[in-house]
Each structure stands twice: as structure tokens, then as C-alpha cells.
Design goal:
alpha/beta, Rossmann fold, Elongation Factor Tu (Ef-tu), domain 3, 30% helix
Length: 303
């Protein structure tokens, strides 16, 4: 997958089949759009393109209200990894600014999607809005087709167990500790990617852990407690138990006990795949007893 940081850099993409959005989580609804992009790209002899934004528009436009406490399912690194695995060919990451937010939907389509990129097809999800004041929508895309020379498609929202899938719904499931529900909406495991550091004996002398700092402050973590995870780094793979400390410990680190440990793990980029919450945080139990209970729970699971 090719990564571009401006529209001008991406101007030579052949016959672009384009979608746009934050794609936080790269969930089942996003994957439906991406699969349609791939099919259309094959039909048109072109390439699939996602235009996305960083920082999140809400963080820029509403820094003192909804943007202040904004938390996202994925860091930018994680989102790029998931999009690449989903088969996207090109991603254009645009720095979102207040100035950019004042581009009207019509100007965005006319000058950028058609003018610079020369998009063949523009695909959007149901209820997707774009442009100044979010005034652009699929109805307008449909009306602009002949004037600007592109085709337009709208992809309906996806449902899991009769519930509409959205990034907001997934964030709420994660915040409540419902990992399996979030995974069902995502259609993959919730992940954390970070650098692995050496064992932290201060957590428990009896149970060895590695430490993975979460460096992107907007990354949404599940609540404090113990979680069943699988861990991958290059060719290394192990089951494990992740410990997310309570807020009062004032750390964004995740501590991971690996079922299988190799001495060269520290220093590697590790991906944690979250399967299930094992235990909520227990303030009454001794740390060693609490961690031992979690490990026992982890060993009983098949994953």
C-alpha cells in the first residue's frame, strides 16, 4: 500500500476509485466499502484510494468540547496496518486544519477529487457527509456526476446481530470492556501496536511481564483489568495476558505476561490482539493472587 501526504503527490494514481473518511477501527462497514473499491478498481483498470485525515476533524474543530476527550479505536500506525491488510492500494493522509474544513463539498469534489485526482468513481457509506459544515452528501454526489465526470455509489450500513455497526458503537463497547462485542463489529481483533520493553519486576516478582507504552494519547484502551491476548512480533507468536492498570497509577503502559518468552522480544514492535476480558481490576486482592487468577483464566481459554 502506498502512503501519500498530499493530493498533489497522489495525482498520478491511475483511474482512482475513491472513498473518504476517518475509517476509525476499519470495521465491517469500512471493509464493505473497501471491498467495493477493489472490485471497481478491477473493472476500471484503476486503483483503490482512501482519503483520510489526521488529526481527527473533531479534535481540530471542537477542541474544548467533543474533541477534548476524543478517543480513537486505532492509532495512525494501527489504522495503516489494518487498511493494508484489507487490500487498500493507496491512502492519502491529509493534515486536517480549520482552513481545510472551510472547503465546500462541491469544491472538494470539483477541485480535488476530480480536478487533481481525476477520480473515476466516488464511493461513500450511507449517511456520509463531507465538506464545509458537513453539507456534502451522496445526493449531491449523484447530482454532480455528469457535470464533473465521475460515477458515484453509496454503500448501505452494515449490521451485526441486528445492530448497525459504527465506530461510535465500537468505542462504547471497548470502553465498557465488552471486547468480544467490539471484535464482532470490527470483524477482526481489537489491536494495540507498540514497542516491547524488558520485564518489569516491580509489577510482580513472581510473574514476568513485558511493558508496552501506548504513546498516542487519543488511543482508546479498554477499562482496567486483565485481558486474554495473543501477541505477535515478526515471526514470534504467543498467547498472553495483558494488564491495564487503573487510572490512579497514572501510566499509559500495558503490561503483558507471555505464555512463551524469547530473550530478543524487548525492542521489537509487538501487536496485541485482544480476545476477552478475563477479570475486572480487583483492589482487594493481593497483586500476586490477582495476577495468578488471571493467568489461570487465560490457560482455560482456547484461543
Amino acid at each position: 500500500m502506498r502512503i501519500f501526504r498530499s493530493f498533489e503527490e497522489a495525482a498520478d494514481i491511475p483511474s482512482p476509485i475513491v472513498t473518504t473518511g476517518t475509517f476509525d477501527g476499519v470495521h465491517i462497514g469500512h471493509k464493505t466499502i473497501l471491498n467495493r473499491l477493489k472490485k471497481l478498481a478491477s473493472e476500471y483498470g484503476g486503483e483503490s484510494v482512501l482519503i483520510t485525515f489526521h488529526p481527527h476533524p473533531r479534535a481540530v474543530l471542537y477542541p474544548d468540547s467533543v474533541g477534548k476527550g476524543l478517543r480513537l479505536i486505532n492509532s495512525q500506525e494501527e489504522k495503516i496496518e489494518l487498511l493494508s491488510k484489507a487490500g487498500l492500494e493507496n491512502i492519502i493522509i491529509i493534515e486536517f486544519t480549520r482552513e481545510f474544513s472551510h472547503i465546500t463539498g462541491e469544491a472538494f469534489v470539483r477541485d480535488i477529487l476530480c480536478g487533481i485526482l481525476k477520480s473515476k468513481v466516488i464511493v461513500v457509506g450511507q449517511n456520509h457527509h463531507f465538506g464545509f459544515n458537513q453539507a456534502g452528501d451522496y445526493r449531491q454526489l449523484w447530482n454532480w456526476r455528469s457535470r464533473f465526470g465521475f460515477e458515484a455509489e453509496e454503500i448501505p450500513m452494515q449490521e451485526v446481530q441486528h445492530e448497525t455497526v459504527s465506530s461510535t458503537r465500537i468505542r462504547q463497547a471497548l470502553a465498557d470492556g465488552y471486547i468480544q462485542r467490539a471484535n464482532a463489529y470490527l470483524d477482526h481483533f481489537y489491536i494495540v501496536i507498540g514497542q516491547a520493553f524488558a520485564d518489569d519486576p516491580g509489577l510482580s516478582p513472581e510473574v514476568p511481564f513485558i511493558r508496552i507504552p501506548v504513546t498516542e494519547y487519543v488511543k482508546l484502551l479498554p477499562p482496567e483489568g486483565l485481558y486474554a491476548v495473543s501477541c505477535a512480533a515478526d515471526a514470534f507468536y504467543s498467547r498472553g495476558m495483558a494488564y491495564i492498570p487503573p487510572d490512579e497509577e497514572k501510566t499509559s503502559d500495558i503490561f503483558v505476561h507471555l505464555e512463551t518468552y524469547e530473550k530478543d522480544i524487548p525492542g521489537k514492535r509487538m501487536t496485541l490482539f485482544f480476545h476477552k476480558r478475563l477479570l475486572a481490576y480487583d483492589r482487594l486482592s493481593a497483586p500476586e493472587q490477582y495476577l495468578a487468577r488471571g493467568i489461570d483464566e487465560m490457560h482455560e481459554l482456547i484461543f
